[in-house]
Amino acid sequence: MTRYDVVALGESMMRLTPPGDLRIEQTRTFDIWVGGTESNTAVGLSRLGLDVAWFSRLPASPLGRYISNRVAQYGVDTSHVVWAQDERLGIYFHEKAQPPRDSEIIYDRRDSAMSRMQSADLPRDLFRSDRSRLFHITGITLAISDAARDTAREAMRLAKAAGWRVSFDTNYRSKLWTGAEAAEACDHAMSLADLILCPYGDYQVMYGDAAPEEALEDLAARFPGTLIVMTLGKEGAQAITSGGNRIRQPAILAGEVGRIGGGDAFAAGFIYAWLQEGDAAVALKWGAAVSALKYTIPGDLPLVDPEAAAALVAGGAGGGLIR
User: What is the b/e burial string over 95-106, where b = at least 16 CB atoms within 10 angstroms of the residue's CB?
Assistant: First the structure.
């Protein structure tokens, strides 16, 4: 049986985006991308050289196979996907815009195949001590339905019982639930996690206003013994280790071509280095590097080159020259 470094569970959708900066009501065609926070991170981890499996519940249709094939194309094992007959794939539309007009996300994901996933669908033979090192999941899976939330909680329990480490990214989405609902559900998940990834904006929505340093300390107090990582947008990221050591990492400036998936790319870089090096400071550098590279790539998936990420971590210029 295959042993993985990371196993991830979550919904992946088809993204439809008008070409250029057209509005949806103007366009006659759409660019098609595959996007889902856990599958984005899984692809990033695979690109960095780890053995990764991602599973979900997909419709047994050409649309479902399109998702699975695209994720598998980049080296992620999708053999544990649950296939559902006569169900639908979640879709979302992305209307890109330049300031002062805001870009917009429109979801069409209600009652998707993944939202109907049950605990009985989990591949329990996968959750054994010799099958993986870490299980990764995010708050989006908790948000899409009660069934998915129960399934996610059972998967985390199985991972912990198998002796795996667990990473949890809050990944708050205001179109899926309120901050209070997210805090209630995510608190339980974070209590099981060895690594918590929480954007500063998520903390503010879920727990209230506080300075970034105070927010980090609050999470450390709520979830003692856990590695807490908080991304700060253009201000970089900060972390506090299980032993109370605080670390700060500046952002790496990048041209913005594909912003969607930047946080998932950060998670991939951080988890990769954390598993390989065991050093949170090094992991923060990798998170910043992989996220910066993702910003230069269209689509949701962080199709980064590990050599380029390593060069940024080492302090390489990354000046955009032709090689």
Answer: bbeeeeeeeeee
**Residues composing the chain:** 323
**Rounded distance, CA 226 to CA 209, Å?**
22
Element (H, E) at 246: strand 246-249
Phi-psi region of 111 (alpha: psi -120 to 50; beta: other; left: phi over 0): left
Give pairs for 312-321: CB < 8 Å, separation 24+. Answer: 312/252, 312/288, 313/282, 313/285, 313/286, 313/289, 318/252, 318/292, 320/255
Distance CA 81, CA 117 (A): 11
Q: Which CATH architecture has domain 6-313?
A: 3-Layer(aba) Sandwich (3.40)
Burial-class residue 146 by CB neighbours within 10 Å (0-12, 13-18, 19+).
exposed
Write the pLDDT tens digit of every residue in 257-316.
Answer: 988 999 999 999 999 999 999 999 999 999 999 999 999 999 999 999 999 999 999 986
Helix (H, G, I), strand (E, B) or coil at 300: coil
Give the pLDDT confidence of 165-178 residue by residue, as tens digits.
Answer: 999 999 999 999 99
Where are the chain's structural domains?
Answer: 6-313
294, amino acid identity: K
Nearest to 235 by CA among 219, 218, 221, 215: 215
Residue type (1 letter), 63: L
pLDDT band at 1 (very low <50, low <70, confident <90, very high): confident
Mean pLDDT rounded to a whole number for the chain:
95
pLDDT in tens, 81-103: 999 999 999 999 999 998 999 99
Positive or negative, the CA dihedral 185, 170, 258, 10 is: negative
Nearest Cα to Cα of residue 177 among 186, 168, 167, 169:
186
Active site residues: 264
Residues linked to residue 128 through DSSP beta bridges, in sequence order:
none
C-beta neighbour count of 153 within 10 angstroms:
18
